[in-house]
Amino acid sequence: MHFTINGEQHDANPDIRASLLDLLREHLGLTGTKKGCDHGQCGACTVLVNGRRINACLTLAVMHQDDDILTIEGLGSADNLHPLQAAFVKHDGFQCGYCTPGQICSAVGMLDEVAKGWPSHVSGSLDTIELTETEISERMSGNLCRCSAYPNIVDAISEVAGLAPAGREVASS
Amino acid sequence: MKTFEYTKADSPEAAVAAGGRFIAGGTNLLDLMKLQIEAPEKLVDISRLDLATIEERADGGLTIGALVPNSDLAADPRVIKRYPVLSRALLAGASGQLRNKASTGGNLLQRTRCYYFYDTAMPCNKREPGSGCAAIGGFNRILAILGTSDQCIATHPSDMAVAMRALDAVIVTLQPGGDRRRIAIHDFYRLPGDTPHIETVIQPGELITHIDLPPPPAGKQLYRKVRDRASYAFALVSIAGIVSVEDGRIASASLAFGGLGPMPWRNPAVEAALIGQAPSTAVFEAAADALLADARGHGSNDFKIPLTRRTLIACLRDLTAA
After folding, report:
1. According to the CATH classification, is domain A2-75 in 3.90.79.10?
2. Chain CA centroid to CA A25, Å
3. Do B96 and A127 touch (CB under 8 A)?
4. Which of A8, B22, B138, B199 stands the most exposed, by the fewest C-beta atoms within 10 Å?
């Protein structure tokens, strides 16, 4: 089978049952994409296929031979961070970091959906979208963080999206 | 996962001729295949068929290709403007990632999230006919109060299908012999009875190609979903409502319910209790009485009966407010 991942061509012969996630991790060594639940419930495996965010665990590799697949490895590198990666570092948007690649790929796809004017469950109007922290939380609900870094994840995405700082209350002694 | 033969179809006709299980988005089927709850011998990949567009109908309705992703359907300007109940229902379901992958046809055919259907160590008549139902007498908080049988109390999990039932959608299929069939959504799903493993009237090898929506009905539309967390959870109860009021009286009403039954639920008696009446709490109570006359709790889902009553009354207040 032939795949296009992060702009590069790859050949692999995974089992017909292989998910896109297993292709990336087990056959191509692209271990940035994480396996959490393997059932589409946690979002750790989120990648971008033809620009759209999907759960790589719930799709067969064989069905993506004609697609452009983008993973966290294609978004940025240690010395050339994607703006969302830099913002996650700045805002402490993780503790253990396991969900982070999925969070970042999801946020890239999510911000593109907002740019296209797609509404969400919390949008007051379906045809005029204003991105708020509530919108970000709703739109990112497919990405779980068991360290519960959610406020910082929202801060990081808010900064990249150009939202005004939230002025979050911080308990002080 | 059991292994399977894989083939990719290049036309709907080739897909039905191939004789296998269809896979489009795969978000539900692959989940179930990993657990060997589904184990098709042959998968026919229909994901690249030319069935992913939304077209205008001459009667003012829309024809939705079966492969239109849930995200695209929810965000389509024609759907937003004319069928907001459908956009709202879609957006209330799943996550952004799943909506990007899940197809319209697959959403209609998705299977219950009953805990015991998923737990292969437990009996389940839907998964293994004749094995029994562990949900009856078990943990059944999310399960059905209407349309159940002594064999199965599973709910249909879709939000989208609830809105489509309120909108009188028609499901268009291609049969293996090449004939087309139009099935009103009201006739599409089956009650469990003593065959809970047979959920729809779709025959093996029959392919959903389109869903037709009639012209948008008059009145206000809303979709309200009550669930255990604010996002990314299945409904405890959901309501798709379309109500018009003329000269102080309810002129038309269409109400469909999720989370209550083995199919997106609709009962003409509910609408009959409303039509011709001046909106009032007593009238709304009568509609709830009609809906819940045969409702039966199974222990941990008893709360759904009063929850549904209160949610319906709240929706009707909003739908009939000036």
Report:
1. no
2. 16
3. no
4. A8
